[in-house]
Amino acid sequence: MGTSITQRFPWGYNVKARALCSDGIVRTTTHLGEADTFFSAPAAVVVWKNGKRYTVSGFITVETLEGYSTETDDDPAMVKFIAYQYRKNGTVLPAGGYRDAI
Predict the structure, then answer these.
(1) Which of 5, 23, 29, 50 is most buried, judged by most C-beta within 10 A?
(2) What's the pTM?
(3) pLDDT 10s digit of each residue in the chain, 102 long?
């Protein structure tokens, strides 16, 4: 689906990412922080809605399209963006992460 994370070495800092948002659109992160856990890193994306630009804060994580942690041939792993619903502009994107319709 075109998602990726670019890292800077030798320390492996995440410098940019293309992540699948909960509305099903892959967006490039505008701010990508140092990972605060093994499973996620703080990030932000820009969402254009009704002609207005919104910066939405959240985090990126890697999981499968259906939401599992282990990828299979039928369910590949990808980078997903999860918006903080309690922060400014958090409700611009639907709550949670994108899931493949079953």
Answers:
(1) 29
(2) 0.84
(3) 788 888 778 876 777 889 999 999 999 998 887 777 778 889 999 999 999 999 999 999 988 888 888 888 888 889 999 999 999 999 999 988 887 654
